[in-house]
Design brief:
Layout: E1 6-10, H1 18-30, H2 51-66, H3 81-92, E2 95-100, H4 110-120, E3 128-130, H5 135-141, E4 146-149, H6 152-161, E5 165-169, H7 175-183, E6 187-189, H8 192-204, H9 209-219
The structure holds magnesium ion (MG).
């Protein structure tokens, strides 16, 4: 029996569609039309945007914080995404950790909201870690082997501060983002499904160093 692989998943932009929920709140407050960037709950609030956009973003965040159990209202990025992680966790005996830096809202703690949401999506007994600060330090402390995240900053952090191999979810397959990730030894995938396919290959090849090297080269881990 080999030691289980340890796999981390970021929540927003990986399994939960935070951007859509942000736009919904924005449309409710300001009407449909031009969007501000939703930013990342990991790195809230928006930084270098023009002043009116910052104020608008602040108002959306304020509404989010006042919404009871906001984190339980999100749609998944893929209908069966969480269920597939659960199925692969059982089949491959992975140890899975959901890691997030979501800010608190009215209602239950972020941890409990996130746990309820994951259970509703088909993952019983989820380990949810609400970790402020460095994603790399968290990946190191958890001895992760792989980590899936949609934030390039988090992936760089994971790559430099832990032994985990990061997989960056790159929306729309943005080729520039893929190329710069690869230069930094970060793998990338266009969707959660594609990320899971990479993890499946890597898991199956775990005891075949040459094959794993080939996969690593293809994915961009070296
Ligand atoms: Mg994220």
């Amino acid at each position: 029996m080999s030691v289980p692989l340890r796999v981390g998943f970021d929540m927003d932009g990986v399994v939960a569609d935070f951007a859509r929920a942000f736009y919904d709140v924005e449309a409710r407050l300001f009407g449909p039309g031009a969007h501000t960037r939703p930013g990342d709950p990991e790195n809230e609030p928006a930084d270098s945007a023009p002043e009116p956009e910052v104020r608008r973003s602040d108002a959306v965040w304020q509404a989010i914080r006042e919404t009871p159990d906001f984190w339980m209202t999100l749609q998944p990025t893929e209908p069966d995404g969480v269920r597939r992680i659960h199925e692969m966790m059982l089949r491959h005996s992975w140890e899975v950790f959901f890691i997030t830096q979501r800010p608190a809202t009215a209602g239950q703690t972020v941890q409990r909201q996130t746990q309820h949401w994951l259970v509703a999506q088909g993952f019983d007994l989820p380990s949810v870690l609400v970790v402020p600060g460095s994603r790399g330090a968290a990946a190191g402390a958890l001895s992760l082997d792989y980590h899936v995240d949609d934030s390039p900053t988090n992936c760089v952090d994971v790559r430099s501060e832990s032994k985990a191999r990061p997989i960056l979810i790159v929306a729309d397959g943005d080729q520039r983002a893929v190329t710069s990730a690869r230069k930094l030894g970060i793998g990338s995938a266009r969707t959660l499904s594609e990320g899971l396919a990479i993890l499946e290959q890597a898991t199956n090849a775990r005891n075949q160093p040459k094959l794993l090297d080939r996969i690593a080269a293809l994915v961009g881990w070296r």
